[in-house]
Amino acid sequence: MAANETTQDVKSRGILWGFGVFSAIVMVVLIVLGAWWGSEPGQFNIMDEAEQRAKETHDTENMPVGYVYTNTLAHIAEVLLHKPGGYITNDVGPPGVLLDNVPSWEFGALVMLRDATSALRNHFSRDQSVSTEDPDLAIAEPYFYFENDSWALPSTEAEYEKGVEALHKYMARLQHYGGEIKKAQFYSRADNLWQYTEVVIKRLGGLSNRLTANSSGTNFGPGLTKIEIDENTKETPIARVPWMEIDNVFYEARGASWALLHILRAIKHDFKDILLDKRAMRTVEIMVKSLENSLEPILSPMILDGSGYGLFANYSLTMANYIARTHAAALDLRDIMNRG
After folding, report:
1. From CA 326, how far away is CA 332, in angstroms rounded?
2. What value does the CA radius of gyration of the chain take, rounded to a whole number of Å?
3. H-helix or E-strand containing 313?
4. pLDDT tens digits, one per residue of 59-83
5. Which of 69, 187, 217, 256 has the fewest CB atoms within 10 Å around its CB?
């Protein structure tokens, strides 16, 4: 009897040990995958990517105005979909469902992608307000506005892939046309760039405001004031971002900065003539440099929220500073493009 009990105890312990080892292995795998999937994508060279795409069409010499800009938008979407772990916002299983910073990063980049695609459809590809919109861009833009967290049919990834495909068709028509293929247009004019810059200004202003509201020990709002005056001249404190959402706002701003940085580099290329003519190239370079600084590597395993002159850094205020510089330069760019 005692021998049977001893045997059962050994078996029970063996099962428990086996389950414990299996659980430990699963946890290690999830942690490693989470760390890998949770890393931010690096920057890419817009010209190298455009040339690589042109090689696929066997025409590297023919990259007309607008080709680099459009390919940059397509590649931003491809990075969102095919980075380590793929597109994570709509994940329903671990480790993706446990990663909250990456979805915030993806959303920030997605908003900038949507704005730039809308500008391409509504402004850059149209000669006048009464001009007919490009058929491929009319298809591409709505796909990027599909809900960003759908995992069922149709999935977010499938819809965004269709948007990328439509952008590639537009690019092909920029390169090759004739017969039944209608030439695609891209107008790198000052008024077109001015209209897009207006949208960028609003996006950057909103991000800067939210990042500043992240700051520990402050209720700062627009213009770094502790209060704002409502219609009845009553002083009302501006609500701070909840503590658990501080890192989400920070990573959303990082994703937006990453996407906008590449878009501005493409604008420097495709709007080069008008930027030089208006003496605005230096202004765009200031925006690019500020965004590059905002994407410096993060050395802390968590987003620090120290006070302004305290022992620890405040990542949100640092990010807000760089975005505010970009915002100020965007205001200058708008004014320059709006001049006759």
Report:
1. 10
2. 25
3. none
4. 777 789 999 999 999 999 999 999 9
5. 217
